[in-house]
Amino acid sequence: MFIYEKKLQYPVRVSGKDVRMAQAVLNQYGGADGEMSASMNYLTQRFSMPLNETKGLLTDIGTEELGHMEMVATLFKKLIEGATKDELIAAGMGGYYANHETCPFLLDASGVPWESKYTQAKGDPVADLYNDMAAEQKARATYESLIVLTDDPLVKDTLRWLREREIVHFQRFGEGLRLVEEYAGRQKYF
Amino acid sequence: MINNRYNQLFNEESSMLLDIQKLQFAIYDLSLYLDTHPNDPVALYKHNMLTQQLQQLRSTYEERFGILSIMGNESGNTWRYINSPWPWER
């Protein structure tokens, strides 16, 4: 089960509102390579993991990604809070406001809603772990694009920290993949 | 006067919470490492040291400011868990 901890994994601060940036960071909430996809991927795939090491890894990284969803949603909320009518319309967020006001919603930066097609669970641990390593790299690349899109040092700080986590997760998934491949080699079931 | 006292309390609370966040982050990152290196004695030792520190800090924090999770022990006579600020309001 999951028990909520009333705190963010890492502080989220902004220097001021920035509606365009709010729209951009939404990509890491409900985008194909966002935190929702990552969390649902790992928390689902763990059911077919053959090793305790990778059951633990997918559980713990999948749980951390839930915390990252909370951080990205917080970043969105802080960036859009207090925006005026003109600022919302100028940033192309009039339609978004009409539907969700300033509440974060699972969409990518272009407004495409999140769907389970963004996730993979092949039931094959090698295929899934390769998929997860690719997912971490795609998320790292997205965070780098987001860092380019802002001049706010506080927003950059949060995004840099999230980018670093993708690199750590990639490393751990690589270790998990090596363990699974060694295990599969021992089984000789082909 | 009342405002100053409130601000001072809030600063104490947020700096203590930040210390908890730092400890929990270190523990989390070590745990991911331990998931794939379950027999590393140095990582195990560090994990134990940090979890002990966290336990102490957490019980002091929760007694003063309210529980961080509903599995904690609310020592006051009101359910301070719902008090502001929530994580996205800080």
Question: Can you walk me through this structure?
Answer:
The complex is a heterodimer of chains A (190) and B (90). Chain A is mainly alpha-helical and 190 residues long. Chain A is elongated and about 65 Å long. The longest helix of chain A has 35 residues, at 153-187. Chain A contains eight helices and no strands. Chain B is elongated, with a radius of gyration of 16 Å. Chain B has two helices and no strands. Chain B starts with a helix and ends in a 25-residue tail after the last helix. In chain B, helix 1 runs antiparallel to helix 2 (41-65). Chain B has helices at residues 2-36, 41-65. Chain B has 90 residues and is mainly α. At the A-B interface, helix 4 and helix 8 of A face helix 1 of B.
Chain-wise SSE layout:
The complex is a heterodimer of chains A (190) and B (90).
Chain A: H1 19-25, H2 27-30, H3 35-45, H4 52-80, H5 85-90, H6 94-100, H7 125-148, H8 153-187
Chain B: H1 2-36, H2 41-65
Shape of chain B: elongated
- Name the CATH superfamily assignment of chain A: Ferritin, core subunit, four-helix bundle
Our estimate of the beta-strand percent of chain B is under 5%
Structural class computed from helices and strand pairing of chain A:
mainly alpha
- Integer-rounded radius of gyration of chain A: 18 Å
Mean pLDDT of chain A: 97
Helix content of chain A: 55-70%
Helix-strand category of chain B: mainly alpha
Unreliably modeled segments of chain B: none
